[in-house]
């Protein structure tokens, strides 16, 4: 009989993409005499954990949420002498959900670590299988998406990403009805490229506008172009389609993970801010024209730097300029209050804290714009 996490990877690679939870559950029962197995995936807003094996069962509770938030296994001894384990399903820092499994007795640390590895193998397989089955997409949804939201979610690179020298996360709201706001990222070698965009308008037209910009910048980036060339290709693509009647406000950043130097092209409303020891300051950049306003627009790079313990945040105008019911803008002071609450949180938790603060600030008033936040912690390596 195949043993251990490595064999689970082989089993999952041989399984149909929509049967990964069942294959994992069968292995856990046969190898570990496990019971009570459930795969719980975070919904689009990461506010609930949705069951996959038994979709009619309850969402994940406080212990599952604790595991998901802390990214550490949680052991829950049961009155019958068994132990329920809650194990994070994570790929490169991207939190997908929680694997719940009940085993006889109290597991030794070695067994807990082995089961954590199995949860990681399952997470990798589920992320890969998303291209070929709708099962996991359906499980994550509490309601139907708008067409614009469907397009935007398919464009996103993920919701968090960790490396040896950085931690990164992004969030998008309202999750089920977004329009033109978006973020993108890619890490290659010593460079991390971040982009936050806001396509003009509402609904599917705004989403299509943003999709044009994102794919143009990806095309340039994957051809080895720098952020100026990425911005110029995207601007030309939008102008050729809309003739200056539509534009995309964009902030492009290229972070050197070796020394914290950041090159920037500021082409619109998204703002970069740096949090340090409880203070929050806006990065001062000279704003250039949004993408697509004119033909043959040229852009220039500006530079700033990150220091150890700096947290870089980029927010769309749906965050910093939100003024529900005529109140002062959220970015005036309330954003600082929300950011201060995140000091002990990793970026994947911090983005949720800031957006919850934004929801509270609206006090029941429907937002008139979607919102994006990206959070980066630069972890300078010591020699």
TrEMBL record:
The keyword Hydrolase applies. Residues 56-80 are annotated as: Disordered. InterPro entries: Bact_Sigma-Reg, PPM-type-like_dom_sf, PPM-type_phosphatase-like_dom. SMART domains: PP2C_SIG. Residues 161-378 form the PPM-type phosphatase domain. Pfam families: SpoIIE. Keywords: Hydrolase. This is Phosphatase. It comes from Paractinoplanes durhamensis.
